[in-house]
């Protein structure tokens, strides 16, 4: 059970809130936070304050994960696992194990934000300090900027297919060598900037518009995926389905390291949205609704999607004479302009969906947390959008080796942040949060630590990230290539262990509370 001080000043100190009271007190779309008179403006705006009303049900969380999974990036990542040289059942076991780990960890990180009604960077104030929370916020924000650019690029590639099919005269402008700048073709730039603007417009309309958008995106991709799969089956026949996309080269005990690597890759792929899932769980009606949505959206949904991916990809071999693991390219081979346009546009919309929920909203909150009075939620999102162009994301995700390197590097920095948050909330503070102290600069506040920073959390972050990133940087050294696959787990484990020791057994031990207020139980 989580204990917290009520953010509602109309209730007396020590009052006991029930679940219905919390829903009434806690949050709605962005800008719907309850700003108390004594909240410090240097830490507060309506986007960061505890929500007045929480209205998301299980389906909204389920749709969030569908939007996160059903993208070109998700398709390519799932398909790549079936080409590792494992038998199909081994890959499915690895996929299920990886996504179950993600499900378990998402539930852990969801609870503190759902109960308090505050986003990820604000709940981090209880761990890193009211000023130190900017450290994880900036790290997560910069990572989201990179992913935002990558996903926009993948979606723009699908749009390129549509444009060339409808207007064949544009084909020469898709050649980087003839019409290119900074590694992207002229047509690619046009598609990228078009989708960049579209996403910004959806984001600008606010959280409720985003919720309605993602409620549509995930199911839409399922419709197209089933249609595409049905079309290929009609061309090749049921007997052509083969769940092994490549030759099986690992059997018995030799397959275990490869399976473990596949599990690690799944966790790394979801490590970003998993870390800041509190940005979304804060809108949940109840923690039970969030958990149910996670169950449907992660283990159940991801397994069904992965099966669809491998069946569709395996049928490209008998139909087109080669294995195609990119859904956009598969759609482009169909002899129907309507089918190509429908399929490519659907994958484009789906990728926009994951981009907004996973990589636009996070930096919006993260950058706003740095200077709440100067940077609103919308301004934070636009900072991320501009940064996503400057990093030329097409150079970060242009081949399998670069994909794995990118995931491993990001995992090394995200892992410690996750481990520290979990260690503090569940092991050190025993699920106790003083909400009002998240918004005060008073030195008597529970989260002031040392000048607003918690040295234990900062040290644990540095140690965890530094150790985890070493194998990624020196993959050519003996044993380092294998260790690099587990950068997220290394960082998470080290961050959790180092923080727990520093926070409970050293001179840096944290205060669980200032003793001046009675915590109130929230059902």
UniProtKB/TrEMBL annotation:
Q: Which keywords annotate this record?
A: Membrane, Transmembrane, Transmembrane helix
* Location(s), subcellular: Membrane
Q: Mainly localized where?
A: membrane
Membrane-topology descriptor:
Multi-pass membrane protein
- Tell me its family: Belongs to the purine-cytosine permease (2.A.39) family.
Q: Give the transmembrane region(s).
A: 61-83, 89-110, 179-204, 216-236, 256-275, 295-317, 337-358, 379-397, 409-428, 453-474, 486-503
Species per Swiss-Prot/TrEMBL record: Rhodococcus aetherivorans
Does Cell inner membrane appear among the keywords? no
| Record InterPro entries | Pur-cyt_permease, Uracil/uridine/allantoin_perm
What name has this protein been given in UniProt?
Hydantoin permease
């Amino acid at each position: 059970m989580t204990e917290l001080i009520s953010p509602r000043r109309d209730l007396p100190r020590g009052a006991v809130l029930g679940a219905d009271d919390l829903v009434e007190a806690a949050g709605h779309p962005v800008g719907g936070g309850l700003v108390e008179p004594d909240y410090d403006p240097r830490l507060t705006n309506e986007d960061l304050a505890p929500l007045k009303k929480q209205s998301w049900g299980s389906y909204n969380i389920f749709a969030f994960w569908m939007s996160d999974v059903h993208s070109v990036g998700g398709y390519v990542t799932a398909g790549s696992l079936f080409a590792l040289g494992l038998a199909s059942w081994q890959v499915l076991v690895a996929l299920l194990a990886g996504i179950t780990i993600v499900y378990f960890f998402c539930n852990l990180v969801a609870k503190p934000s759902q109960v308090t009604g505050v986003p990820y960077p604000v709940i981090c104030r209880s761990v890193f300090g009211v000023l130190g929370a900017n450290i994880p916020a900036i790290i997560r924000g910069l990572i989201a900027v990179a992913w935002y650019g990558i996903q926009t690029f993948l979606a723009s590639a699908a749009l390129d297919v549509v444009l060339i099919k409808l207007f064949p005269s544009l084909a020469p402008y898709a050649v980087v060598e003839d019409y290119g700048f900074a590694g992207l073709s002229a047509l690619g730039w046009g598609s990228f900037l078009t989708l960049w603007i579209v996403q910004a417009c959806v984001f600008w309309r606010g959280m409720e518009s985003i919720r309605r958008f993602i409620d549509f995106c995930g199911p839409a991709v399922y419709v197209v995926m089933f249609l595409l799969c049905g079309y290929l089956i009609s061309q090749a026949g049921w007997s052509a389905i083969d769940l092994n996309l490549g030759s099986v080269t690992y059997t018995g005990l030799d397959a275990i390291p490869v399976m473990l690597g596949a599990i690690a890759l799944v966790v790394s792929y979801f490590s970003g949205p998993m870390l800041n899932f509190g940005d979304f769980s804060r809108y949940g009606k109840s923690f039970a609704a969030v958990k149910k949505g996670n169950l449907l959206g992660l283990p159940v949904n991801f397994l069904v999607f992965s099966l669809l991916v491998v069946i569709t990809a395996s049928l490209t071999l008998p139909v087109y004479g080669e294995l195609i693991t990119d859904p956009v390219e598969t759609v482009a081979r169909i002899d129907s302009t309507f089918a190509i346009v429908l399929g490519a546009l659907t994958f484009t919309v789906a990728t926009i969906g994951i981009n907004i929920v996973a990589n636009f909203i996070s930096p919006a909150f993260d950058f706003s947390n740095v200077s709440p009075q100067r940077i609103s939620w919308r301004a934070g999102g636009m900072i991320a959008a501009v940064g996503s162009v400057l990093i030329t994301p097409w150079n970060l995700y242009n081949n399998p080796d670069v994909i794995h390197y990118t995931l491993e590097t990001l995992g090394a920095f995200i892992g410690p942040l996750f481990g520290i948050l979990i260690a503090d909330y569940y092991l050190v503070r025993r699920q106790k949060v003083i909400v009002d102290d998240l918004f005060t600069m008073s030195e008597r506040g529970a989260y002031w630590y040392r000048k607003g920073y918690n040295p234990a959390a900062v040290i644990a972050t540095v140690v965890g990230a530094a150790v985890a990133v070493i194998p990624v940087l020196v993959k050519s050294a003996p044993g380092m290539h294998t260790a690099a696959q587990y950068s997220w787990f290394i960082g998470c484990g080290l961050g959790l262990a180092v923080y727990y020791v520093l926070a409970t057994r050293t001179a840096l031990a944290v205060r669980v509370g200032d003793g001046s207020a009675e915590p109130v139980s929230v059902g």
